[in-house]
Write a structure and sequence with these properties.
The protein has 364 residues and is α+β, with helices and mostly antiparallel strands. Helices cover 29% and strands 29% of the residues.
Length: 364
């Protein structure tokens, strides 16, 4: 078995510490862990600077970074192919990070010359974990001391630039079926634990059942910049103790991703969750296995970061019209939720099975 993930994020997000934790943790579980180094840093330390006024030098540097990234990954995949242990390849940033640092037309030129497109680059990775920059919600921990080539300095202007870059990196990876945004926490250890948990899910390792905190809400003001998508969710016939979901997610850009997800209870309070992306033809075929006792759920999802915490606002359509649920991602039980001022909380529904999508789908 080989899985390849990207560990990315905004400036001063804890990525370096997370890489050390990941290598130690999964090596101890019997995995062979390879870490693909951060290619832009290699070029910066070698003398190239993405702030150069020479646009041709800038362009050729970014193209070289993309080509080197792809080459590095190919070589580590070759090493993985002869390993006798299961392999985890962790990329310290991935190919699509590069697009966050340039205009869309320049990125299109580079990918065209390199012979790849955005969908091909997304499909190279089994998961993408984005660690939110300390500049958003954990400003007291933001520093440039750990990275001598960081251009976003620890002043108000630098913090603002770091927040914007953080959002650009998330946008660059939008459309990946296993993009997970890892919040800031007052206790940094919780951030690291979430990284380990998300990778464990990708590897199919049993994990404790955890409840993301959910709330019935009303939208009372203007949302910040969001990433919007439409979700159509269908539950399939499955054996007892197993929940099988087929999801089609369509972003406003036109990108469509189909994901087949299975949750299986393995013991008290423990489950294995697996998911795989499926092509349109298989998606249509799997719809024939739809649970006749459940209707498909349709909703608009708006994702955003507020004060270092990641939220998903789901506005339901069809027979569930009028239902609006706000879900937090990776906020610990003892941690305060930074509710945005444009959201009015009506009721917390964390753990309330009545509001599980699986039960909302039941035909009345």
């Amino acid at each position: 078995m080989m899985k390849k993930i990207v560990l990315t994020g905004g400036p001063c997000a804890g990525k370096t510490t997370a890489l050390v934790r990941v290598i130690e943790h999964f090596n101890s579980l019997g995995f062979k862990v390879f870490c693909v180094p951060e290619v832009p840093t290699i070029y910066s330390l070698a003398g190239w600077n993405y702030l150069t006024p020479n646009r041709q030098l800038y362009f050729e540097g970014e193209r070289a970074i993309l080509e080197t990234q792809l080459a590095f990954e190919a070589q580590f995949e070759r090493l993985a192919s002869v390993c006798t242990k299961p392999v985890l390849i962790v990329c310290d940033r991935g190919a699509l990070d590069i697009s966050a640092y340039m205009a869309p037309e320049e990125w299109d030129d580079i990918t065209s010359q390199t012979g790849v497109n955005r969908n091909q680059l997304l499909e190279r990775y089994d998961a993408v974990l984005h660690l939110v920059s300390a500049a958003d919600g954990a400003e007291q921990y933001y520093t440039t001391a750990t990275n001598s080539i960081r251009y976003e300095k620890a002043d108000e202007e630098g913090l603002r630039a770091a927040r914007e870059l953080d959002k650009k990196v998330i946008k660059a990876w939008t459309g990946h079926p296993h993009l997970r945004v890892i919040n800031n926490h007052d206790d940094f250890e919780r951030k690291m634990q979430r990284v380990i948990r998300e990778i464990s899910n990708v590897l199919g390792l049993p994990q404790p059942v955890t409840e993301e905190r959910k709330y019935l809400v009303e939208l009372t003001g203007q949302l910040p910049e969001t990433i919007d998508s439409d979700i159509l969710q269908t539950y399939l016939v499955s054996e007892p103790g197993t929940e099988v979901r087929l999801r089609r997610r369509t972003w406003l850009s036109g990108k469509v991703v189909n994901v087949h997800n299975t949750k299986k209870r393995t013991g008290p309070g423990e489950q294995i969750e697996t998911e795989r992306q499926v092509e349109n033809a298989l998606y249509e075929s799997l719809l024939q296995q739809a649970d006749p006792y459940r209707q498909s759920i349709s909703k608009r999802r708006q994702s955003f970061i507020w004060q270092g915490q990641y939220f998903e606002l789901d506005t339901y359509k069809g027979v569930l019209q009028g239902l609006v649920i706000l879900e937090t991602k990776g906020i610990a039980d003892a941690e305060d939720v930074n509710f945005p001022p444009f959201i009015r909380v009506i009721q917390e529904i964390t753990g309330n099975k009545e509001y599980y999508n699986y039960n909302l789908a039941l035909r009345k």
